[in-house]
Design goal:
This protein is an alpha+beta fold. It has 2 domains: 2-83, no CATH class; 86-185, PH-domain like. It is 44% helix and 31% strand.
Length: 186
């Protein structure tokens, strides 16, 4: 119940951020919500229509409150995806999946980043063997190969897959930041 309330609160907060056109994170932002937003918009429209129809047919006030909360929840999911993108700082790649998952990957352990689209069936966050997949819309399209394992939920990973709106740009930014950091260390 606590996780549900936290997710609700973060969704409402993200709506406020979305209205103000703000984003969580600093540095280079790597979005992952572009292909999901049309579905959110359609679902929001259907819920708004359902809310209006139920408002005409059912006289109970508490049903209308539940309908409005459902509408805000769907909008909150979209807002969280838009306002909490992955981001790249000077020394860390921060990978997010909504408001409930965040993984910090030091750039010094990234051996390579490449575009590699893969379809997935299963959970959004999945650790299989030594590969962590952060799946959005049943797909990932960027693969990171790490020089050493890092701790992830459920174990350790030497490969990380995630989704990006512009995978080629994301790979280019990650490789440039990683090589720049490595050059400064030596």
């Amino acid at each position: 119940m606590k996780k549900l309330l936290i997710a609700q609160w973060r969704g409402f907060t993200a709506l406020w951020w979305w209205i103000r056109r703000r984003k969580h994170g600093t540095g280079t932002l790597i979005g992952y919500a572009r292909e999901q937003i049309p579905m959110i918009v359609v679902l929001t429209g259907a819920l708004a229509l359902e809310t209006a129809v139920v408002g005409l047919l059912v006289p109970w006030w508490w049903i209308h409150i539940l309908d409005v909360l459902a509408l805000l929840q769907v909008l909150g999911i979209g807002a969280v995806m838009v306002t909490r993108p992955h981001y790249l700082t000077e020394d860390t790649l921060v990978l997010c999946e909504g408001s409930m998952f965040e993984l910090r990957v030091p750039l010094t352990v990234i051996s390579s980043a490449r575009v590699h689209r893969k379809d997935h069936n299963g959970p959004t966050i999945e650790l299989a063997d030594d590969t962590l997949s952060i799946v959005i819309g049943n797909q990932t399209d960027v693969t990171l190969v790490l020089s050493e394992p890092i701790a992830v939920p459920g174990g350790e990973a030497t490969t990380i897959r995630f989704r990006a709106d512009e995978p080629r740009d994301a790979v280019k930014a990650i490789n440039e930041a990683s090589s720049k950091l490595t050059a400064n260390v030596h």
